[in-house]
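Standup notes
- HV: blocked on the assembly model, inputs below
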Amino acid sequence: MKPDPCALLPERFEAWFASRGWSARAHQLALLALARAGRSALLVAPTGAGKTLAGFLPSMVELADGVRGEPRMHTLYISPLKALAVDVARNLETPSREMGLPFAIETRTGDTPSHKRARQMERPPDILLTTPEQLALMLAHRDARELFSGLRRVVLDELHALVASKRGDLLSLGLARLFSLAPDLAAFGLSATVREPQALARYLTPDPARPPEIVTVTGGARPDIRMLETDRALPQVGHTAAVSMPAIYDLIRAHRTTLVFVNTRMQAEFVFQALWNLNDDALPIALHHGSLDVEQRRKVEAAMTAGKLRAVVCTATLDLGVDWGDVDLVVNVGAPKGASRIMQRIGRANHTLDEPSKAYLVPANRFEILECRAALDAVEEAAQDTPDLNPGALDVLAQHVLGMACAEPFAADALYEETLRAAPYAALDRETFDEVIRFVATGGYALTAYERFARIVQGADGLWRVRDRHVAQQYRMNVGTIVEATMVKVRLGRIGRAGSPMGRGGRVLGEVEEYFAETLTPGDTFLFAGEVLTFHGLTEDAALVSRASAGTDPKIPSYAGGKFPLSTFLAERVRGYLAEPESWARLPAQLVELLESQRRRSLLPGRENLLVETFMRGGRSYLVAYPFEGRLAHQTLGMLLTRRLERARMKPLGFVANDYGLAVWGLRDLGLAAAGDPGLIDALFAQDMLGDDLEAWLEESNLMKRTFRYCAVIAGLIERRFPGQKKTQRQVTVSTDLVYDVLRRHDPGHILLRAARADAATGLLDIRRLAKMLSRVEGRIVHKALDRVSPLAVSIMLEIGRERIYGEGADDMLAEAEAMLMREAQGEDLV
Amino acid sequence: MNAPALMPRSCAPHAFSLGRLALVCDLSGVLCLPDEDALLVADLHFEKGSSRARRGFLLPPYDTRDTLSRLAAVIAAHDPRRVIAMGDSFHDPHAAQRLCAEDREALAGLMRGREWLWLTGNHDPDAPAGIGGDAAAEIEVAGVRLRHEPSTAPGPEIAGHLHPVAKVVGRGGRVRRRCFATSGERCVMPAFGAYAGGLNVRDPAFAPLFPDGLVARVIGRERVYGVGAGMLAGD
């Protein structure tokens, strides 16, 4: 397409561009031309290409004449972060003001006051910037049809970050509804570079036969990215990168503004603390992560935008395209975990296309050197590993169906047709859809008990409608797909003798996940909000803490490698390096040393095979395997192996897993048993473990229960827990663990169990990846019996004792506690 | 800390006594009184699921039959002459009417040929209508007081109401299980109902009942374990 710039861009805009010394870019003009033709489009461009402006320019041009009748929404912009929506609104105000454009731009997020939201329904702005959750709420409003009927364009920012998640599913359903309500609607998707733009483009059209145009911006300066070299020895395990802190501090000193990305909140706390200890120049360095008090986060963001900070240590909360000002260096501490993720983080430095982004990868342990190397090579080749798009989640569909009933009565046939237009649900069968409707109505149980409590009811006209206003209110309380871990406040204060807090308690410093607080015992010290705190105990809704005396070493809890498992793509490369000693020249000496000694004393894991080592140590038999499939898949594998070993009477005692491999240990010598039975190891890893063993384990797996809880909340089966809700109140509600047990026993085919199993396959249990691995290595298992621990095994063995055990060990633990009591009763000394 | 008085070396942790009454903690969560040929079951909370459904949360409606089928298994195993439900057997005053025919039938089958006593609880302050069995607020069996809500009056006493669970923290992990909270004076039974949650025995609600500490008889997968206060973690 050859757009004629003069025709596409009105003079007023041309002049404004010129006044800034700019001219409209080719992709911006291309979107103008597509908009004029009423087409939808996906714009794929690296950071700094002026994506957001490209997405808005057509709407601004169309609205520039100001001849519109009554107020109607023209353009809807949806971003994954409310901060991003607010930021974009701010950025649009400048051109709009300077060109004197006569239209209204507003944002709508969870923070927007309710009177303003109500007014927006009545008199909408021309351009509304919002989030997927707010879109769902608006679409469930009685006036949705009226509100959106004249909508011309929807702009989906950071689309790559929205899809491939339940939020993406919810958004796709909302989009399908928008296409139904607004006949003239066109969709623009804005995305960072992705592996399969076609799959993403499908998202933007209700009709696969009419795919949107894909506009790709290539080029941009090659990023200047390297691994941080250190002459100090990296540890075998750990994620704190402690030895690299002085080098990171020097980098911060040498740059204007540095973003230091880490994978977890704990790492953020550690790195911030370490940098602060080194900060002899008193550089303004700040900390930003999701658990900090909102006030504190806003302060950091403001200081950042104002250019007052030299560095911010942050987690994924700053991953996406919010423009925090003049960043000229990105440092990524710890394993990159995925090539696309690291590219997007690097893109945070230098928000212009022509200057190279500058970044350092900082491995925290020797294994992570391999991962950093793999990421560097991927960036070099511009290879992408954005995740596959999964079929749409059924719990999300259930939420959407209830929302649609809140908006207006619906016919099942029509809503089914509309659902198929949402990309993730294109292959949904009618039977499943009807089951979802039954679930929304009466719970969808084989035992029909709840007819009189139905949430939606079918009238004589065949239409489904909500039973009463109470149901609609419940829907509004529950909208969205983000199920937060239950949080408890971190509050200054102490526990009195009776177990209740002394006095009223002090200032709230922020929040931590409840499960983390539960791992603390009184007297433990941990890092939070940049301080070392001493834990005193839990009250109903708060962890009581005091500031530890200066110089106290925090007990940093273990967390295995961050929230994101190693991507399949990087894993494959890492296996490749290991298998090809000729590539080692590019690796640091300390890692080569480790690999050499592994080669001498055992074997190197191959590209396609699976290395399994066995050895005895301290009277226990160990089995260590190196699948490189990420921590989640390894945990599942560890659990299944343990069950099998138990059946084979090998008396397994426990297992640990990290991103690279896993270790299982027990009482009987596995090496010896394998010597007597050559098929033993192969049988241990046979694919059929994903059948009955998996089923049996799922029955009691905590991870499965957690997965089920997320589905149950999203689908509206149980109440959401809100922060600050008291524990006594929570005890009134029914625990989803109990619900899961009962449902599994009495209605194993129930739709929510199906939803939870689908999630487990890709989520916390990563069964799909495990299945692929098991089939890949079938017949290719290399067993090496050793007389002692191998160099590679050390890093996995060091995880022992840092991880919790699951299910199996429970009775042992109770027996141990009982033995303590017996000794106590017999008057023995307790150590 | 003083050694708990009720943990004789020779005795298995599931068996203990209050006054002259011998008691056996069953893995299912009921308490057996072998000398009385009686079985005690606490906090059945029948129809808790449908009670939530009335408020728009359509929990699986199988809790009653799940509870009943587990109870049926215990009753079949022990075939007691007398069953005493320790209160909160029905989740709300209308729960008995909501029982579906099949569950009603199953319950009647369990009651047939036995002495059956419903102690009243805060969820079911009145005797259930049309179900059968006797009802009382409190009774005495072999010198031990049985009531729904534990009292601080001198024992011996067996009660329910609090849904005790124990959390044990061990090497790298933790277990949270239903338990019998016991002392030489008192036993608070675990809840039996499928949807009945649990309250940690370290909660302040237990403190006045066990001024000299308690032993949690924790229900494991294979047997009941006796765990002392020193090994119990709070939530």
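- HV (later): unblocked. The longest helix of chain A spans residues 82-98. DSSP finds 34 helices and 25 strands in chain A.
- Next: hand off to the docking folks.
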